[in-house]
Amino acid sequence: RGVSSRTAQGRQPVVEAPEGSVREGLKHGAASLGQEASTDKTTLVRRASRVFHTREIMAFDMGEPPLEVAELLLSASACAFTDATRLLLVSRWWAALARSDCTFRILAVKVARGAKLHFEPSEEPADVCWRDVCRRLFEARGTFCSTFEDRVIAAHSAPQQFSVTVGCRFRPPGGPAAEEECAREVCLPIHQRLKLIRDSYGCSLAEARRKLWSSEGAEPVNHYLDAEVAVERKAADVCGKENQLANGAHNAAEEEAEAQSGIQLTTKAGLIAQHQGRTIVCAPGLGIRAFEFSHSWDDQVKQRDVYATVSPTVRGLLNGRSSCILAYGQTGAGKSFTMFGSGHSTAEVLETCAATGQLKPGAGAGVAPRVLLELVGALSARSALGVHAKLKLAAVEVFGASVTDLLHEGADLGAWHGVAVAATSAGHADEEITSVAHAMELLDKAEQAKRRAATRMNERSSRAHSLLLLTLEQQVEGEGLVRSSLCLADLGGCEKVKRSGAVGERLQEAIYINKGLLALKAVVTALNQEQREPRRPRHVPFADDKLTLLLKPSLSGGAQTLVFVSARPEAEHAVETMQALRFGEACAQVDVGAVAAPDRAAAFALAALDAQVAEIEAQIRAKERFETVVQRQGDPRAGLC
């Protein structure tokens, strides 16, 4: 393109301007922008748009305009993504500007605008890497459009990574407690005691054993110096007397040795500490255990802070990516509060929206009302981009072998194993959302229809698994239909019948709840085993329960999954808390790998076939009728013709 070589004086290579009035106009227009850096931003944007009115960037020498002018040139509305990338190749100064992360923010906006993707830079976190955001949007440019800036996009899109994000949340202490007395002080297992002694004294394993069973040593062991426990934490009550466990009373000789040596063998049960993504819990018979999650919230966290981790999932839904949000934990741990908020959250949302004139939820609104507000608010923005969007809602409840429709007076969706799942997937329980008030009305109707009862563990316990299914259909004129879904699953709380006092109908409900949770654990275990031995494909038992069948599209690949583990910090719930955190740890290890996105041509062909099948079914329903034909025929041999 006529680039001259470096001269002896060490000057930068200059790009020679090609001939032609249009190209000369581009050159002089860019030069005038560079000379008038003091002009206000509105004038600069107007003149930058005039420079790129031909939507072509040819090779010309712009010199080194001020940084503000360069960013205005890149962000001009008439400058497309291809034009901006060509401009960044004009000279070394522009190439150096391409290494700036702020430049990729401008490019990300252009990619989203050209590909009709949902993207709001203000919604991204402050420490986001714009280069990664631009790459992610560029890979998804073929979601809604088959062409990008007059270029045909390859039929096969980039593979989608199936990942599971886990966060744990502890409710405030208090509430109904079980009558069964539980150990509040826990004797640490021997291997943990030995490890703590070694870390405290810096001795060998043999010396740690001698110190543990001898009366020597005057300094007590501070077992919080352990590598797994050494974090900023709340002050833990540590006592030097071992509790009575199920296997018998404490050995008097060992207690006397403990008192003489000063080695502390016990600690309190329940939640010990939380720091960033680390949670440390102690339970009887298990000792101290540390868990690493993507998020960890204490009992003082606000609902809006929890929803901040869900918002990227909702933005992915608007860009054609299916998602799933699960709430798992012990009964009475706050799962329903996290998912739906307080009992009057829907009315609070409507009052807040009416008072402020904006789509803003109340302070007590949970994940579901906030998701609906964000999606309904984004529909108008999608329409402005030329994307026709339709949002549908279905609410179902899994109770044993039956799946009921919460939005249609508890109608049964299927009498046998596969009918309910097929009917739900086909959209037989969907209701189209027309406004924010309509969405809150449907959500409140589903809440009122749920099975609830009081037990010893929870005064308002959910007695079945409830799923909120959102389906978003988006289509650009002349392109195919893109369907994405979001599943909000408020699972029933796992409970011990002895502690909850469930009898009669409550007992049957607890059996159904635990059966569904057991099937879900079996699915997660099978996914982890398949990951460890990829050469030996294993059977994943999705068909063991209707709950796992409904969750199969979310857990089998190609969907973002977020698991909320709800727990209680009290000592009497330490064992259940440990079990819930172990389930979250198993979910965090699931990695199915990259799943290929559906082929655009194949998707169009299937959509055409579905349309033909629907048309034929409509004709059959219109023409079919039941007739009764009576034909009398005699025996000709008997003369009865």
Describe what this molecule looks like in 3D:
This protein is of the alpha+beta class. It contains 22 helices and 18 strands. It has helices at 21-35, 41-51, 67-75, 81-87, 92-98, 101-115, 130-139, 190-201, 205-213, 252-261, 303-307, 311-318, 335-340, 345-356, 367-384, 419-425, 436-448, 497-500, 505-532, 546-555, 574-588, 600-623, and strands at 160-170, 185-187, 266-268, 270-275, 278-283, 287-292, 295-297, 323-329, 387-399, 402-405, 411-412, 431-432, 452-453, 461-462, 465-476, 481-490, 560-567, 593-595. Strands 1, 7, 8, 9, 10, 11, 12, 15, 16, 17 and 18 form an eleven-stranded mixed beta sheet that branches. The longest helix is centred in the C-terminal third of the chain and has 28 residues, at 505-532. The protein is globular and about 105 Å long. Residues 1-39, 52-61 and 215-261 have low confidence and may be disordered.
Roughly how many Å apart are the termini?
100 Å
Approximate helicity band: 25-40%
Q: Any idea what the shape is?
A: globular
Main sheet attributes: strand count, strand direction, barrel closure:
11 strands, mixed
Percent range for β-strand residues: 15-25%
Q: What structural category do the secondary elements indicate?
A: alpha+beta
Rg, Cα atoms, Å: 32 Å
pLDDT under 50 segments (min length 5)? 1-39, 52-61, 215-261
Number of helices: 22
Nearest-integer average pLDDT: 75
Number of strands: 18
